[in-house]
Amino acid sequence: MCAKRHIETTPSNMYLTPDTPIFVNRVSESFELAEHDHEFFEINYVSEGSGFHYIEGLTLPVAKGDLFFLPIGVSHVFRPASAQPRNNQLIVYNCLFDSTFASKLADFFAGDRDIIHLLTAPYPEQAWVHWKDRDGSIQSIINTLFEEFVRKRPDYLQMMQLELIRILMHIRRCESGDLDPPVSNSTDIELDHVIDIIRDRVVEPMQIGKFALMVGLSERQFRRRFVKRTGMNYTDFVHKLRVEWSCRLLVSTDYTVSSIAQKVGYQDIKFFNLLFKKKTGMTPKQYRSMENPKST
């Protein structure tokens, strides 16, 4: 029996007041803070180092440029990659704001249902989201937010509101696919890691959205870059791996065709036979006979 996770709730009044509805800090993450949810919206930006973000039961590796938007009610905690902070500090900027401030932001995006939903709906009605700042533009905005909050010059709340609007507009462009920077070597490595995971778990039901989160892309961007990396779309790639596995089983075992179809992830034997013939040019039985004549 698994022990139930203990989640502490961070109250809004710990950081926010009617006069200060937005709060920004810069934290060197450690192992001291417990997993928690909160009564406010939160934007996290990884500025330095690497580590992990434990969020709603998932473990995501994070590094510089990872950006998260957390609606009210999401449980999470950051952890550095090493218990020795001198080796690799994980520096995260956190921007917190309450529902009143979120409503002011939403007013700017009147008519944009996706952004309004992002700024008004609690979790799980609104999912948490993750993007990658690949050109450093978000880092610049975060720096300004932090400076405005610390110095509190005249009209600093209005200035911070404008900077948050810039972040949200950047998010909207990412979601629409309008921002599509060149694939970097690090992205190639992340995609290769995802491809390895797909190979290892080819039988299990897989949601492409989870893989997109792992590499910090929208689902649309992930699909496009996956095709560029593999030469085929996600579904065709999975079918290819499954058919290749079934070929090995047909030659190396005496399992029935029906049993092999189930082992590689297909419950519909008719669909499997049609797919196999499409990919290999012959039926499973014909393939077995050709590769292993003694089986006939």
Automatic annotation (TrEMBL):
State the PROSITE patterns in the record: HTH_ARAC_FAMILY_1, HTH_ARAC_FAMILY_2
Q: What keywords are annotated for this sequence in UniProt?
A: DNA-binding, Transcription, Transcription regulation
Domain HTH araC/xylS-type: residue ranges:
192-290
What the entry lists under SUPFAM superfamilies is as follows: Homeodomain-like, Regulatory protein AraC
Statement: the UniProt record of this protein carries the keyword Lyase: no
Q: Which GO terms describe its molecular function?
A: DNA-binding transcription factor activity; sequence-specific DNA binding
Recorded hits in Gene3D superfamilies, A to Z, give:
Homeodomain-like (1.10.10.60), Jelly Rolls (2.60.120.10)
Q: Which InterPro entries match?
A: AraC-bd, Homeodomain-like_sf, HTH-like, HTH_AraC, HTH_AraC-typ_CS, RmlC-like_jellyroll, Tscrpt_reg_AraC-type_HTH
One Pfam family from the record = HTH_18
UniProt KW Transferase keyword: no
Under the heading PANTHER family, the entry gives:
ARAC-FAMILY TRANSCRIPTIONAL REGULATOR, HTH-TYPE TRANSCRIPTIONAL ACTIVATOR RHAS
Protein name in UniProt: Helix-turn-helix domain-containing protein
Source organism of the structure: Paenibacillus silvestris
